[in-house]
Amino acid sequence: MAVSKIGFAFIAIAIFLIVASSNQVLAADCEDDVPVLIIQCRQYVAKAGPKVPPSSECCQVVKRVDIPCICSLVQSTIELFISMEKAVYVAEQCGRPVAPGFVCGSYTVPAPAPA
């Protein structure tokens, strides 16, 4: 089932509100990046659909965010809507590869499959 533009907007707002209202202390250096990251990259990290290379606008945001900081904000409620595997894929496609074993939310980046 495709998610409408209104559905995406609702998801983006819900994720932002969850992050902003969490009991975690939000780091000032990445708190402001969350809404822009959601707006520019949501369609590339949504649970539904295949992996799709991100847009240049999404990559511009990904290239400047503090990935470990953003990952520290990811909670299980966010993972209901966001595919962490796709998020890692997007980071890699944008020239920000993450090392095997890196943890983002509850997702641990796996080691590459043997050739």
Automatic annotation (TrEMBL):
Q: Which InterPro entries does this entry report, sorted A to Z?
A: Bifun_inhib/LTP/seed_sf, Bifunc_inhib/LTP/seed_store, NsLTP-like
Q: Which residues form the Bifunctional inhibitor/plant lipid transfer protein/seed storage helical domain?
A: 41-104
Q: Which Pfam families match?
A: LTP_2
Matches recorded under SMART domains: AAI (SM00499)
Q: Which UniProt keywords apply?
A: Signal
- Tell me which positions the record assigns to the signal sequence: 1-27
Q: What is this protein called?
A: Bifunctional inhibitor/plant lipid transfer protein/seed storage helical domain-containing protein
- Give the source species: Coptis chinensis
